[in-house]
Amino acid sequence: MIPTLNAAARLPPLLAQLRAAGVGEVILADGGSTDGTTALAGARVIAAPRGRGAQLRAGTAAARGPWLLVLHADTRLGPGWEEAVAAALAEPGRARHFAFALDDPSPQARRLERAVAWRCRALALPYGDQGLLIHHGLLAAVGGYAPIPLMEDVDLVRRLGRRRLAPLPAQAITSAERWRREGWRRRSARNLALLALWFLGAPPRLLARLYG
Questions:
Q1: Residue 63 and residue 3 in contact, taking contact as beta carbons nearer than 8 Å
Q2: Is residue 187 domain-resident?
Q3: Which of 110, 112, 187, 212 is the 20 to 30 Å CA partner of 104?
């Protein structure tokens, strides 16, 4: 399942990858795209209120299979992901996330990847761009995705807790376009500030405005 909003330029490689792997139903939880996203072949489109949390909640409610693989539109999956996912299906009581990687050869990208790996090990805090493989029953047991516009990923993994969350031995490779456009230090500092504000109790709608 993929939350989308005007993702027609970024989404086709991921859809092609999922189709080639023969995955089950692919759902686009769309927040009102106007660029042709909803006309892309190979996916079932669910219209949802705009905002990642609300879109993910609508998409998970519409999913028919027992397992959900939640991905971002600007992501593709690294080698070995199919085998890693298949092995994880034997343990429905744990959610799984991929290792974070960026499609950029720069030293800044490698430093950010190492920082994210530390965050996941030390804090058990993967973000949504690392994907999430979760059984429908486990998702329901923790209350599902909250219909909030930002930090829906952090909110969910905090409710899952470390014991019900584990890494997959494969990468989710995310577009580095936003870091290149906004500056590596500036974007990383903003993301860290938003996370701190979340833990201090700032409203998600305020954080979404700050995020842009």
A1: no
A2: no
A3: 212
pLDDT given at position 210: 85
Strand partners, 68: 134
pLDDT at 24: 86
Does residue 190 lie within any of the structural domains?
A: no
Phi-psi region of 182 (alpha: psi -120 to 50; beta: other; left: phi over 0): alpha
What three-state secondary structure class fits 164? Answer: helix
How many contiguous H segments (helices) and E segments (strands) does the chain have?
9, 8
CATH, residue 45: 3.90.550.10
Query: CB–CB of 99/170 below 8 Å?
Result: yes
pLDDT for 209 equals 87
Q: Is the dihedral of CA 122, 126, 130, 134 positive or negative?
A: positive
State residue 14's pLDDT score.
Answer: 96
Q: Number of folded domains in the chain?
A: 1
The whole-model pTM stands at 0.95
Which H, E and C letters describe 106-135, residue by residue? CHHHHHHHHHHHHHHHHHCCCCHHHCEEEE
Task: Determine the Cα–Cα distance for residues 70 and 135; give it in Å rounded to an integer.
Answer: 11
Report pLDDT for 146.
96
Listed as ranges, residues in the chain with pLDDT below 70 are none
Distance, in Å, from the CA atom of 211 to the CA atom of 83, rounded to the nearest integer, reads: 35
In a domain, 117, yes or no: yes
**d(C-alpha 69, C-alpha 76), whole Å:** 13
Amino acid 212: pLDDT: 75
- Asked whether residue 185 is assigned to any structural domain, the reply reads no
